[in-house]
């Protein structure tokens, strides 16, 4: 049966209405889908956006950058910013409550720990090494052998030239190439945990250094008085100074030497062996059966990791970074975010370390897990 013109128009109108209804349903469904997919992924610390701020050690910054990137990818409602600035700045910022967490290569000195006993948690989160780097064009990337005493005498201003007999005796393979050029000694100018580790090594291996200079995050450098000392901020500042200054020597975290292609020395350990940094030689320095808890004083224990006698294969300038946080938090959202980040650092984070670091042994991973459990989230 053939449709009349009126019937045809009616059928077209009905079809149009049905199409518009279907389109409306589709648009509504699409909008609902967009709303669902654009919501933050729910996780154990809730839906609201939480921001955490940290500062401190430049020794740990390459590892911290890795951790923050991976952790926040899995927790899109948590934002973390870590500014570095040196261990001294990190501790000062935390005690002034300017940041939520701090990283410091040495733990709190005993006096500060006693003042805040039970209030601050401190625990190691990364193992690394301080390396002695140099720029000697005549020998290129050749790896020197150096002792703590020789390095101390360079920074004391007593060993002046690269062809000094004490250096040549340790390095017969390149002795004839060592130039009669003045050694430029580069050091940190800021309050630095890397400096504390380095000066601890010098004090343990050279009595003259121990008596005249001592140990600290910042010290008076005798070589500066000779005009052959240069101070720079941060591991990166020292690294750049070494790269741009022929005949210089300095100390930086191993990761920076690897990243910028600087040669570094084998150092003599207590067993008399010249050892280069490696994952194995760093870990060997941290053999500890019963570590302190996050509530304890770590100052004496941390000193034993430098120039460690734990193994004849231990690298003698091994270092670590401690994370410091207040135990009690009024803001429960921030507290739970911090707890999740600490748990990540002690587990998956140890598998996400850049070159130049070694993972925590199981005993120290347990200390990190214990710290997360000790956080008291109020609010």
Short description:
Keywords: Phosphate transport, Transport. It contains 14 helices and 13 strands.
Main sheet characteristics: 8 strands, mixed
Q: How many DSSP E strands?
A: 13
Uncertain regions spanning at least 5 consecutive residues = 8-14, 20-44
Instruction: Based on the coordinates given, report the CATH architecture of the largest domain.
Output: 3-Layer(aba) Sandwich
Whole-angstrom Rg:
28 Å
Share of helical residues = 40-55%
Shape: elongated
Which structural category fits the helices and strands?
alpha/beta
| Strand order of the biggest β-sheet | 2-1-3-11-4-8-6-7
User: Mean pLDDT, nearest integer?
Assistant: 90
Structurally, the number of domains stands at 2
Q: Assign the CATH class of the largest domain.
A: Alpha Beta
CATH superfamily of the largest domain: Periplasmic binding protein-like II
- CA-CA gap between termini: 78 Å
The proportion of strand residues reads 15-25%
Describe this entry's structure for a reader.
With 379 residues, this protein is α/β, with parallel strands linked by helices. The protein folds into two domains: 50-127 and 289-299 and 320-377, Periplasmic binding protein-like II (D-Maltodextrin-Binding Protein, domain 2, 3-Layer(aba) Sandwich), CATH 3.40.190; 130-282, D-Maltodextrin-Binding Protein, domain 2. It is 41% helix and 18% strand. The protein has 14 helices and 13 strands. The chain has helices at residues 5-37, 61-74, 87-95, 110-115, 148-155, 165-170, 193-205, 207-212, 234-244, 254-260, 279-284, 299-305, 332-346, 362-374, and strands at 50-56, 78-85, 101-104, 120-135, 145-146, 184-188, 229-232, 248-253, 266-268, 274-275, 318-326, 328-329, 376-377. The chain has an eight-stranded mixed beta sheet with strand order 2-1-3-11-4-8-6-7. Helix 2 (61-74) links the parallel strand 1 (50-56) and strand 2 (78-85). The longest helix has 33 residues, at 5-37.
